[in-house]
Amino acid sequence: MAKSLSKSKVEWWQGGRVCNPITGCLRRCDYCWAWDMALRFPERYLANDNLIRFGPSEAETGWGKDPFAPRWWPEQLDAVRRLRKPSRIWMCNTADAFGPWVPSLMLQEMLQVARDCPQHTFLWLTKYPGRLREFNPWPSNCLVGATVTDFQTFLASCFELEKVDAVTRFLSLEPLLGWPDNQRYAKAIQRADAIGTASALHQGGISWVITGPCNGRLAKKYPCKAEWLNSIAAACDIAKVPVFEKKECRRLVTRRELRKEFPKGEGDDMATDG
After folding, report:
1. How far is CA 186 from its chain centroid?
2. pLDDT given for residue 264 in this prediction
3. What kind and span of H or E run contains 145?
């Protein structure tokens, strides 16, 4: 792992940096791009024997030979401390830092860097939002979010984020694998559904939503519908929450312009490094 911070190529974090003091994940979602990358370039990860221990011993699991086993790279935190220019830094984009296998002390060490570097903006994203409140209150320079793949995880994440004391809470609905399909119903029912979704956004204190379909080799396995994206955008309008639709949405949404909105106060700073 490089001792410097690389630039992100993700559209909504374009120009921002990524910091990976943790790599790997035990969740193993089949659409995970980071898992694919670890399998393509295993030598990058296997060079580090600083495994994050969880559950059975390494001898039983063979983690040492698994490039996507959770690993600790503290030198990445040193790179953040050396960075003087105010920057936007995505923490652990090749891992889920809040997975139950990650010790709280490691997370506290990462959060301390955010506290010690107020000139930077840090982004955190997880599929385990129930753990986020463990670290309340969050530093004001942190954007704290949950990855959502369907309506059930959307509701659960809004419920959990309501308990998180952070200035900016957001949702990444990507890859979007499922959503209530109400297009065959009357407009009044569609409107009622949108209001219900907007209510959940409001309850969770959500100030930004990102949407996008499954992309790449599993796009056919997990097809997304334009109706889902339109329904989410309508709910965001009701809740007055900005929505960013990734460029991959263009193949689905053809009758309107894609939304490229950012949280209040971020604006162009989210599109270029500060």
Report:
1. 34
2. 80
3. strand 142-147
Please indicate, yes or no, if residue 39 is contained in any of the structural domains. no
User: Which range marks the domain in which residue 97 is found?
Assistant: 6-20+75-270
Contact 124, 142 (CB under 8 A): yes
SS3 percent helix, strand, coil of the chain, rounded to 5, is: 40, 15, 45
Place of tokens 């007055």: 240
**Structure-block tokens of residue 70:** 């959770």
Cα–Cα dist 109/97, whole Å: 12
Residue 246 lies in a domain: yes
Bridge partners (DSSP) of residue 126 are 146
- Parts of the chain with a pLDDT under 50: 274
User: Which pairs from 162-165 meet CB under 8 Å and 24+ separation?
Assistant: 162/203, 162/204, 162/205, 163/132, 163/133, 163/136, 164/129, 164/132, 164/133, 164/136, 164/138, 164/205, 165/133, 165/136, 165/137, 165/138
Rounded Cα gap, residues 124 and 91, in angstroms: 6
What is the pLDDT, as a whole number, of residue 14? Answer: 83
pTM, full prediction: 0.92
CATH number of the domain to which 143 belongs: 3.80.30
pLDDT of 64: 84
pLDDT of residue 188: 61
Q: Are strands 121-126 and 142-147 parallel, antiparallel or unpaired?
A: parallel
71-101 pLDDT, tens digit per residue, is 999 999 999 999 999 999 999 999 999 999 9
* Count of the separate structural domains present in the chain: 1
pLDDT tens digits, 22-34 = 999 999 999 999 9
